[in-house]
Amino acid sequence: MIDAYQRACQQRVDQHLSALLQTAEPALARLFEAMRYSVMNGGKRVRPLLVYAACEALAGERDQADGAACAVELIHAYSLVHDDLPAMDDDDLRRGQPTTHKAFDEACAILAGDGLQALAFEALTHAGRNPADPAVCLRMVATLARAAGPVGMVGGQAIDLGSVGHKLDQQALERMHRHKTGALIEASVQLGALASGQADRQALASLQQYAAAIGLAFQVQDDILDVESDTATLGKTQGADIARDKPTYPALLGLDEAKAYALELRDLALQALRDFGPTAEPLRALARFIVERRH
Length: 295
Fold this sequence. Notes:
Blueprint: H1 2-20, H2 29-39, H3 46-57, H4 66-83, E1 93-94, E2 97-98, H5 100-103, H6 106-124, H7 134-148, H8 153-163, H9 170-196, H10 201-228, H11 231-234, H12 240-243, H13 249-253, H14 255-272, H15 281-292
Antiparallel strand pairs: 1-2
Helix pairs in contact: 1-3, 1-4, 2-6, 3-4, 3-9, 3-15, 4-6, 4-9, 7-9, 8-9, 9-10, 10-14, 10-15, 14-15
């Protein structure tokens, strides 16, 4: 089920992303080329999938969530462009291809990331891709801004950079990843729910529990794959976290315990959806996919 669902949602969001990443101005051609390169070069589109699945879980239609699906992927892409820079993680490979600063140059990569971040909020306010209610749209903008900013993803990256070479306990490691990785995943689910127009307090609370669990599970599985997989499969440099002496779940818990923890988080996510009916099946499938993926 998840394969067909993923393909349908990927095709849908890619069509909208491609339309957003166009310019008629020759002077901006290289900038937009770098932006397109950073977004349209593959990727699992997990965050847009979560947007669509959360919207549908509350009986919404996909066209209500197109803006949010684009927005979270644009924020994710911008974060990868900036994280890969020499001043950050200094990575040369992303999704099996040279990172943006290698394919272009550092200045262009910085500007491409800046452009993608701004374009995300443009997508989230586009009249044809979002709910008609301006109050709902405003709430969605605030949700994404908080998740992407200093108390969310950016803050998590700052904590991550400051943690290199240090030993973190599990509580500190989870705090870092709930910011760096979890915040945008949680926002993806929240945005999809809000886009449905059917998000009451109880539903949002249950979906928040689900999203918090899978956001952490996603990072635990990433850490596991950094140990077990290979560069060709991952599409990025295998073992990079170990080489940089970054704190990871396998290093802290051991590989077997990290795997058990990922499954525990998956089960917590599924339990959070116990009051949802068949419309939440894509969310359930995504929880399983996140801990079973091999790249």
